[in-house]
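Notebook entry, cofactor series.
This is the third protein in the set we're modelling with a bound small molecule. For this one the ligand is magnesium ion. I'm keeping the input format identical across the series so the outputs can be compared line by line later. Sequence and SMILES below, as received.
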Amino acid sequence: MTVAALALENITCTFAARDNRAQRYTAVKDTTLRIEPGEFVSVVGPTGCGKSTLLNIGAGLLQPSAGTVSVFGEPLNALNRRAGYMFQADALMPWRSAIDNVMAGLSFHGVPPAEARAQADEWLKRVGLGGFGDRYPHQLSGGMRKRVAMAQTLILDPDIILMDEPFSALDIQTRQLMENELLELWAAKRKAVLFITHDLDEAIAMSDRVVVLSAGPGTHPIGEFRIDLPRPRDVAEIRAHPRFVELHAQIWSVLRDEVLKGYRQQLTAV
Ligand SMILES: Nc1ncnc2c1ncn2[C@@H]1O[C@H](COP(=O)(O)OP(=O)(O)OP(=O)(O)O)[C@@H](O)[C@H]1O
Ligand SMILES: [Mg+2]
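Returned structure with ligand:
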């Protein structure tokens, strides 16, 4: 067996319950998730099931209550320095221009300013924003801000890329453009990707493997599907592929009941 880029093993994560601090809520239970080097894995599951929790554990931002995390075979017990992280919400610094946002990580790692700026400029061009470097986040569209965030994450050339519903706030056309862009960048470098989404179409179109999580409490994987669609893929066109339709039907039959369960739980929790 090869050494996984990221291995979450028998992870359980409990939180103090909202209404009664003495009680514990088990968000994730006994979950194992391995991502091989170069593999693109999506995790889908109903809202509130524990997707972000798993990602935060993989990033080293959250300590599991039980289980182990290892990164290329090494146990993780602090921040995961081999991972780059792209949040669901906008995480740009509003007081910095686009180029300053993109070069921030390099500067933090001690790269001299001229060198950092040159690399950031290169990355802005790569995500289609050459010439927008001096704009501030509020002067950019939502899609442009996501591109800046993508450049900001990828410029550090992380071996593992963790993405938490990075494109969910975008309109469908922009989203498909960004998905294709990400796939192109990924194909060039073949880093391990853990991609969280609640959109099954997106998960299938992008991934090598899709993992389905159950509704909480005690979320755990209930299905795993290898996506044997040809690459390179165009995320819009691949949806018409007969194998895509087949995989979608298979995975949806597992996911559907969990989505309904998750939705009902949120209604009763309000
Ligand atoms: N710090 C925390 N304290 C208490 N409960 C938490 C904490 N973080 C998450 N939870 C709970 O754990 C469960 C899983 O949350 P998580 O954010 O991982 O869900 P998710 O699958 O990412 O949902 P969404 O699709 O809506 O983003 C939820 O019930 C949430 O309320
Ligand atoms: Mg989430």
